[in-house]
Structure formats: C-alpha cells, structure tokens
C-alpha cells in the first residue's frame, strides 16, 4: 500500500464533501521545493462540511491506509 493509493481514495472523499482542489499552483521559491513533498490545497463550502467529512465512515475507513502512506 502506498501514497498513490491513499491519495486516489482520499481525493474522492474530499469531492464528496464539496472539496474543490486549487490547480495550477506554482512554488514561489523553487529552492524550497523538496523532492517527494506534495502539497494539495482544497477549499470546502464551509467548516461544517469539513467536520462532517472527518466524522464520516468513508474518511475514517482510510485511517490505517493513511498511517501506512505517511
């Protein structure tokens, strides 16, 4: 089980709860970019949506996978 597996599953959950990924972000200072580092920024409709996502069975089902991925 790897990072890509986790990301492919968590992103679906983000979208289910109204998350929208920002795209076309570019680093401000390329010297600060570290290999194997990924930053993803999602915007949600409101804080309640985030709380509902975190409490959801779908999100919590990925707990062990999240530990292994990171």
Walk me through this protein's architecture:
This protein is mainly alpha-helical. Helix content is 49%, strand content 6%. The chain contains four helices and two strands. Strands 1-2 form a two-stranded antiparallel ribbon. Helix 1 crosses helix 4 (63-69). The longest helix is centred in the N-terminal third of the chain and has 14 residues, at 3-16. The radius of gyration is 14 Å and the shape is globular. The termini are close together. The model has no long low-confidence stretch (mean pLDDT 83).
Q: What can be said about the biggest beta sheet?
A: 2 strands, antiparallel
The parts where pLDDT drops under 50 for at least 5 residues are: none
Order of strands across the biggest sheet?
1-2
Percent of residues in helices: 40-55%
Summarize it.
The chain has 70 residues and is mainly alpha-helical. Helix content is 49%, strand content 6%.
List the helices and strands and how they pair.
Elements: H1 3-16, E1 20-21, E2 42-43, H2 47-55, H3 57-60, H4 63-69
Provide key terms for this protein.
mainly alpha, 49% helix, 6% strand, two-stranded antiparallel ribbon, globular, 70 residues
